[in-house]
Amino acid sequence: MNVKPDFPAPARPSRIVGNVPDGMQPVVLARRIEQRLSAAPDATVALVFVARDGRRLDRMAEILGQLLPGHPLLTLPAWDCLPYDRVSPNGVTIAARMTTLSALAGRSEKGAVVLTTVNALVQKLPPVEAVAGMSFAAKVGQVVDSEKLIGWAAGNGYLRVPTVHETGEFAVRGGLIDLFPAGMEAPLRFDFFGRQLETIRTFDPDSQRTTGNLKSIALAPMSEVLLSEDNIRRFRANYTASFGGNTAGDPLYAAVSAGQRFPGFEHWLPFFYEEVVGLSAYVGDAPFIFDDQSGQAFADRQAQIADYYEAREQARTAANAATSGAPYKPIPPDQLYHIEGSPYALAGGEVVQLSPFMSPDPGARVEDAGGRLAHNFAAERQASDVNLFEAVVNLLAAERKAGRRTTIACWSEGSRDRMAQVLKDHGLGHPRLAENWRDAETTSPNATA
Predict the structure, then answer these.
(1) DSSP character for 188?
(2) Which of 25, 124, 232, 332 has its CA 20 to 30 A from that of 379?
């Protein structure tokens, strides 16, 4: 078991992009993506964005989906459980992670954008080769061993149930195998005639009725740990080498030795593989763009990991002294997490830090993204003798006269249409109803989108 260092990278950003106020990050990313793909059109990964937390990750994915419709976006969230927890990550979280890792390992996307968080970046991952070998591909009309599909599902984290309803479940009923894959919105029904795969159909998990047909499918695993014979043997060796050979009454050791999954066993991930790697092993030399305050988020995660490990170690020592039961045996933090240095050292390519300020840094190139906080009309809203909409129209007219394009963002198409009509009633001429960001960017300076 080794912790692979991946690519050497600086301990500080090589470039700082300043004047990026909150809300402008997606626009900056969209521009960077276009620049990257223009310079490297065959790149598997256009760039990696590291958000400071999960909420920022979800928001970025939502907005980028609007700015770059149809562009491949891959999200890698962090485990939604505490370090050294007794529970496993949620199935939805694992599905998102394994869908992304499988796509990266199989190089199935071109120009993909990977969105992750500081907490996810800190955590080590299974080796690329292992994830690439954990996928399962099937095509209608081909000879497919149904027992191999069943074995693949059972060994890759899918739960066998009588009827499939949730992601990560599978069921076997004669020549039918139902399976709800990671990263898909609907479960699949594999219909076999002997060893031939006749159909792959999607179906409604509530009504169990067919909703569509597929010609082929590539399945991603539902776990970062494959319970193969080699991995089980490796776990047993690493576990006893780290914690001693007295495994009597140890439920984790007993479950894994029997090829069974145990709640929270993912927290011993490095024990199952020859090496664990960082995200840079999956994305190569793609540039990493770090969110504002990502440095503080990294320091907070370091402290949290250290605190939870220390608490587990103290509990283990006390339990050993009392010789009562099998205590929780945590692995050292540096085996599962990157807890030294800075988050920038985990990048594979160029390191870019976004900042809402223009703080000069003699060790980095500093760019001005040109973002400024817009006029918020607070004074106009409070003044009783000012018409708010007329003030907005006056500001838009001034921006147009200066040759600048103005875009007004609304909550929905309905609110957009109402806002356009209200502003027209107050003297705004030629408003354009943009359908997406690309449409807004191509709007003439003589119009307001």
Answers:
(1) E
(2) 25
CA 353 to mean position of chain CA atoms: 19
At 401, give phi and psi (nearest 5°): -65, -30
Cβ(56)–Cβ(117) under 8 Å?
yes
Check residue 339 and give left, alpha or beta (phi > 0: left; psi -120 to 50: alpha): alpha
Looking at residue 238, its pLDDT comes to: 97
Max CA distance (Å), the chain: 82
- The DSSP secondary structure of 272-294, one letter per residue, reads GSSEEB-THHHHTT--EEEPTTH
C-alpha torsion sign, points 320, 324, 330, 331: positive
How many H helices and E strands in the chain? 15, 17
Strands 210-214 and 196-203: antiparallel
Say how far apart CA 243 and CA 157 lie, in whole Å.
Answer: 26
Residues 341-362: tens digit of each pLDDT = 889 999 988 999 999 988 666 6
Q: Are 260 and 239 in contact (CB under 8 A)?
A: no
- Dump the DSSP string for 293-312: THHHHHHHHHHHHHHHHHHH
List the one residue out of 253, 251, 250, 249 whose CA is nearest residue 236: 253
Could you tell me whether strands 188-193 and 176-179 are parallel, antiparallel, or unpaired per DSSP bridges?
antiparallel
Write phi, then psi, for 29 (nearest 5 degrees). Answer: -65, -45
Dist CA 199 CA 71 (whole Å): 29
**CA–CA gap between residue 303 and residue 403 (Å, rounded):** 50
**C-alpha to C-alpha distance for 177 and 236, rounded to whole angstroms:** 33
Q: Which of 233, 239, 349 is nearest to 290 (CA)?
A: 349
CA distance 96 to 183: 6
Model pLDDT, residue 91: 85
Judged against a pLDDT cut of 80, whether residue 218 lies above it is answered with yes
CA 355 to chain centre: 22
Better-predicted residue by pLDDT, 319 or 23: 23
Q: With the C-alpha atoms ordered 95, 96, 102, 105, is the resulting torsion angle positive or negative?
A: negative
pTM of the model: 0.84
Query: Contact 155/223 with Cβ under 8 angstroms?
Result: no
Q: Range with the lowest mean pLDDT among 69-73, 212-216, 290-294, 369-373?
A: 369-373
What backbone torsions phi and psi does residue 274 show, to the nearest 5 degrees? -65, -35
Tokens standing for 6? 């991946």
